[in-house]
Each structure stands twice: as structure tokens, then as C-alpha cells.
Amino acid sequence: MDSLDTLLSRLFKLHRKSIELSLGRIERLLAALGSPERRLPPIIHVAGTNGKGSTIAFMRAILEAAGKRIHVYTSPHLVRFHERIRLGAIGGGKLVGDAELFDALRACEKANKGEPITFFEATTAAAFKLFSEMPADYLLLEVGLGGRFDATNVIARPRASVITPISIDHPEFLGPTIAKIAFEKAGIIKPGAPVIASVQHEDALAVLRREAERAGAPLIAAGQDYAAREEHGRLIFEDERGLLDLSLPRLLGRHQHQNAATALAVVRNIEPDLEHSVFERGVTQAEWPARLQNLVKGYALALAPEGAEIWLDGGHNEDAGRALAQAMADFEDKLQKPLVIICGTLATKDTGAFLRAFKGLAQEVLAVPVTAEQANSARDVAAAADMAGLRAAACESVESALRFLAVRDWRAPPRILITGSLYLAGEVLALNGTPPQ
């Protein structure tokens, strides 16, 4: 009999070398499963380039603080596939278990009858089956790629659509301009469902406004209908319902203030009567691995120079690079602690654009390979860093890079940022012995 790992491996081989954006295959599979997408709890559908996962983490934390049962679907996973599917329960949800995941995937494989299907389509269908069989108050549903033809976009009536910041990413599938990418993301907008948009480039906002008007969907836009700012070490959020004076988010970086603000705007729209304490608990308790995650224990930290800090982030595009560089620059002791970047990227990403924001901030870049298809070699990453104006060297692995740093003499322990790919972040969490729970 198949094991779960065998089944996942077999499914992963389906169309895994190409992405074919279409809804026909998953619609056929869902019909064969009895249309579970029609029996889901109220859905908050989330698209965008950066910040989707963090915004979902804030929404989940706030809604769970209000006593709600929350299903969550995100991708990709970092260490184990189970991270993609969180099943809601009173008092907090849990990642899907082996037995229930196996049964759902096997049912999808059987219903598909060998017809063309992709890994993401098959696993999305399995998630919908699981979510339809367990009651919850909301399903937080993250788009995999784009929006218009993403497998998650088979849903007809979301409770709300959310568009996080849009920038250039996956241009080979979504188009080469902000406007074209925004058009694909706007494909999740549905008639009558409110659209909550994070801070956007003006070209993106123009497209979202146009598509919302076409669908008859009210648009709630950051900077116009809601806003957040840091004031005296507090997060101040304002919308038409009034002001929230909250502690700063648990997730670090100024960009997380805007992700938290988007989550607050969504929840205030769908649950207008929640108490202030619910929002306070939510923004201070939200967790999202590999987003400026400080590794305070584990094998990786033991390899690093004594007293060093290790920060882990899966950022991989130009906007993410700017946000991470800003977060590193915001450390009050940045002049005392030299910043070293350990970076691995995919060949489909613009490594130079990602790293450019660290020029003048990072002492050097140690380039490493990533265990993934279409990954850059360490030499290629080092060359891109050099072209971006950063001193760089290639290493065989994250482990060898940390050992290389450990034998140096430091005037002060370094701050080490490991970044460039979610695949790399997953490798580091596995190496460190601290996978997401």
C-alpha cells in the first residue's frame, strides 16, 4: 500500500516542469469529487505579490482571538507539505494529519482517473475536500500564482477578496508590467464581494479600481479608506469605524505594519463588532515562519560565530529586498553589528534586483545553492551580488557558509540574514531542527 510520501511524490511528478494556468482541469476533478468547493465556509480570498502569507497570519490570529474556527490554505510549504492545510478548531487550528491528508489525496487521485492534472490543482482539490468536511467560521484561501486562472479561483462567492502589494514577479506567466500583473491578480474579484487592497503602485491601483467597478465590488483601498502608522512605539490604525491604538506587530519590519493594517481592514469589514482586545491579541500573537524569523536556538545557530544573530526570510524579489534592507537598517545597533547575507535564489528571479537594496548596508554576501529545480548556482548568485555592488563569495552550502564565518575574528558578533528563496528558508529550518509546527 502507498505511503503518504509515495503518494505526494507521485502527484508532484504531474506536470511539475511547467505551469499551465487554466481552470478546466480542476473544475473537472472537483465535479468528480462532488463539488466540495460549493460547501466551504465563508472565504477570504487573498492574492498579491508580497505579504499574502503574513496578512493571512494576522487575519487568522485576530479571528482566532475572537473565538472563530479558521481553515487556512497557503503555499508553498517550507519543510512539510502539511503546512499548506490548517484545519480550524475552537481554541486554534492544527495542521492536517497524515491519515486525513492521505485519504483526501488518494480520493483525488482516484477521482481524476489518470486525466491531465497538475500537482497544485490536485492538492488544492484535496484541501477543498478536507475543508468541506469540517465546520469552520472562515477559510483563508491564498492564491498560488496570479489569480484569474489560479486553481483556487473556482470559488464563486468569496466573503471578501484581498489584494496585497503587487510588484514584478513571475513575469513569464503574469506579464512584464505592474498593470498586466494587477489584471491577473484582480481576477479573484467577484460581484458584490468587498475588495480590500493594500498599499499599491498607482498603476496597480488603477487596474484594481477598474476591475472592482466592473464587478460591482466595493473597493476598500489603503491610504484612502484605511491607513496605519507607527507613533510613539504603537501601531495606529484608522478606518471609517474609527481608530485602533495597538502594540506593534509581533512580525518584524515596517512592511509588516501594512500587512497588519490590511488584515485589520478585512476583519473590521467582515466582523464589525469585535472588541479592541481581540485586535490587540491578534497583531501581537501572529506567527509566520521564515519572515524575518530570528533563529534563537538550533543547529544553525550553533554553527555561527559566538554571539551572532541569525535572521531568516524567504524574500526573493525586488520589493522584498527593499523591505528586508529597511528592516536591517532599522536596527539601532546596525553600526556595531556587521551585516552578512547568506543568499540562494532561483534562476527565475532577478537576484541582482533583490540584492541591490543592501549595497552600503551589508558587509558581504555568501552565495549558496538551493535544492530546487531552476536554482541558481552559488557562483551565479555571487556574480549577481557583485554586479549589484556587493562583495561576494560562493560557498557549498548554508552550513559551510556558517562554518566559514565562525572561524573569522569579529570586532563584534555579526548579524546574519539568510534569504533569497522560500526553498532555501525551508532547508535552513530543517537543518536547524525547527520546522514550522
TrEMBL record:
Pathway: Cofactor biosynthesis; tetrahydrofolylpolyglutamate biosynthesis; Cofactor biosynthesis; tetrahydrofolate biosynthesis; 7,8-dihydrofolate from 2-amino-4-hydroxy-6-hydroxymethyl-7,8-dihydropteridine diphosphate and 4-aminobenzoate: step 2/2. Keywords: ATP-binding, Folate biosynthesis, Ligase, Magnesium, Metal-binding, Nucleotide-binding. Residues 46-267 form the Mur ligase central domain. Residues 306-421 form the Mur ligase C-terminal domain. SUPFAM superfamilies: MurD-like peptide ligases, catalytic domain, MurD-like peptide ligases, peptide-binding domain. It catalyses: (6R)-5,10-methylenetetrahydrofolyl-(gamma-L-Glu)(n) + L-glutamate + ATP = (6R)-5,10-methylenetetrahydrofolyl-(gamma-L-Glu)(n+1) + ADP + phosphate + H(+); (6S)-5,6,7,8-tetrahydrofolyl-(gamma-L-Glu)(n) + L-glutamate + ATP = (6S)-5,6,7,8-tetrahydrofolyl-(gamma-L-Glu)(n+1) + ADP + phosphate + H(+); 7,8-dihydropteroate + L-glutamate + ATP = 7,8-dihydrofolate + ADP + phosphate + H(+); 10-formyltetrahydrofolyl-(gamma-L-Glu)(n) + L-glutamate + ATP = 10-formyltetrahydrofolyl-(gamma-L-Glu)(n+1) + ADP + phosphate + H(+). PROSITE patterns: FOLYLPOLYGLU_SYNT_2. Its EC number is 6.3.2.12, 6.3.2.17. GO terms for molecular function: ligase activity. The keyword ATP-binding applies. The keyword Repeat does not apply. Signal peptide: none annotated. It comes from the Bacteria. It is an enzyme of class 6 (ligase). Functions in two distinct reactions of the de novo folate biosynthetic pathway. Catalyzes the addition of a glutamate residue to dihydropteroate (7,8-dihydropteroate or H2Pte) to form dihydrofolate (7,8-dihydrofolate monoglutamate or H2Pte-Glu). Also catalyzes successive additions of L-glutamate to tetrahydrofolate or 10-formyltetrahydrofolate or 5,10-methylenetetrahydrofolate, leading to folylpolyglutamate derivatives. Belongs to the folylpolyglutamate synthase family. This is Dihydrofolate synthase/folylpolyglutamate synthase. It comes from Methylocapsa polymorpha.
